Amino acid sequence: FEQEEEAVRSLKKQIAKLFEESLKVTVPEESVDPVVEPCQNTRFGDYQCNNAMGLWSKIKGNNGPFTGPRPIGQAIMDNLPASEMVDSCSVAGPGFVNVVLSQQWIAKRIQRMLLDGIETWAPKLQVKRVVVDFSSPNIAKEMHVGHLRSTIIGDTLARMLEYTNAEVLRVNHVGDWGTQ
């Protein structure tokens, strides 16, 4: 399973892969894609699987082993494959399965990123060349701190795109010329 995790760069996709395995075991007769989202309230966990209510509406008339969405959520949690990235799980409300990520796993990943370099974990984009046009001060007027804002945002976007191995063309637009 570790090799598959390396192939999938997105943390959300890695969590979804675990829930995909769990759903295959929980409801083998149904073809269900995992619905995984970051938890809106972080005291419940880091990510949550929201499949239980949708599954219940699909299978409630089938005389199966489930009596509602919460037991489905419990079964999804119980069938979740063991993974070092998951610290704990819980079922909340009508079957939401909350996942708390392991602090040790996160620390290992960060350490590996620092040792191996950003190329090993930066997301890969479909585009190869990107133009970032930023700044736009009007040189006919007085410069002020507001001009720095767009420059900093543009430079930040350009750096993030460079991390994805895209060729970034930085264009610094100077605004209209007016009469000086």
Order of helices and strands: HHEEHHEEHEHE
Structural class label: alpha+beta
Helix content range of the residues, please? 40-55%
What's the β-strand tally? 6
State the name of the first-level CATH class of the largest domain.
Alpha Beta
> What are the low-pLDDT stretches, counting only 5+ consecutive residues below 50?
1-8
Identify the CATH architecture of the largest domain. Answer: 2-Layer Sandwich
CATH topology of the largest domain: Gyrase A, domain 2
* Terminal residue distance: 65 Å
Shape: elongated
Short description:
It is an enzyme of class 6 (ligase). The chain has 180 residues and is an alpha+beta fold. The protein has helices spanning 2-7, 11-26, 52-59, 69-78, 103-116, 146-163, and strands spanning 36-38, 47-49, 86-92, 96-101, 129-135, 167-173.
Could you list some keywords that capture this structure?
Gyrase A, domain 2, 180 residues, single chain, alpha+beta, disordered N terminus, two-stranded parallel sheet
Description:
Helix content is 40%, strand content 18%. By secondary structure, it is an alpha+beta fold. It folds into two domains: 1-105, Gyrase A, domain 2 (2-Layer Sandwich); 122-179, no CATH class. A four-stranded antiparallel sheet has the order 1-2-4-3. The chain has a two-stranded parallel sheet with strand order 5-6. Helix 6 (146-163) links the parallel strand 5 and strand 6 (167-173). Residues 1-8 have low confidence and may be disordered. It comes from Genlisea aurea. Belongs to the class-I aminoacyl-tRNA synthetase family. InterPro entries: aa-tRNA-synth_I_CS, Arg-tRNA-ligase, Arg-tRNA-synth_N, Arg-tRNA-synth_N_sf, ArgRS_core, Rossmann-like_a/b/a_fold.
